Amino acid sequence: MVGTARMLLRLILVLAWTLPCMPVQAVFLSRPGQAKVRFAQIYWRGVALILGLRITVKGEVSPARPVVFIANHCSWIDIVALGSVLPGCFVAKGDIANWPFISWIAKLGRTIFVSRSKATVERERNGLSARLAAGDNIILFPEGTTSDGVRILPFQSSFLAIAQAPSNPVIQPVTIVYDQLDGLPVQRWDRPLISWYGDMDMASHYPGIARRKSLGATMIIDPAIVAGTFPNRKALSAALAERLTANAARLRQGRGAEPQVLAP
Fold first, then answer.
1. Which of 132, 171, 210, 215 is the most buried (most CB within 10 A)?
2. Domain of 18: which CATH number?
3. How far apart are CA 90 and CA 54, in angstroms?
4. Is residue 210 one of the residues assigned to a domain?
């Protein structure tokens, strides 16, 4: 009963926080400057607080602009965690643009929707390049979908094509692992509770997380990689996948990980 009451209260509080934030962000979107970026981070930090999500960050966001953040992805909770720390726009699959309510939040957060079909790939790539040229940072999930949280899926090197954009963005690897549940280390059997993948729907997944007292995550932000460090996007993709996989494995095993420079 306590867990159910906690879950319902959090849902009410998220709605109570979100509804007044939406018109504020809409105003910021109509104006130049970085207020829309900063306010989006404030919004996600509020959601994280309500959900009992505690984030330990190791490393620093690059001051260079623009930045393409490359992150692993296992749950909708990643959006809350990464959105509260990283000043950037998410890239999401196109069908999210049609989800009730969620799509409004995504659009106010300036999410870039892509279909990933061959027919639209060039147009979508140009759209991403235009965002980078305008000075926006982009948060990208090169796995292309969510994993089960026990492993990182193979990276799709095609996602790294924007690393060759004319704006010469820097690439910054970001690893996130959920390692605490109700103050105790997360075990392998806890992963399905946290991870959101396969044919899971958000409505049925949310209660399992929201009933718990707290969820802890560790985020490793490795130093940024300047354009041209790797000979091509396949080499870059392989190196990024290897680094994030190693970071995630160490964190899941409780061995800890520290930011490191990624070099060929």
1. 215
2. 3.40.1130
3. 21
4. yes
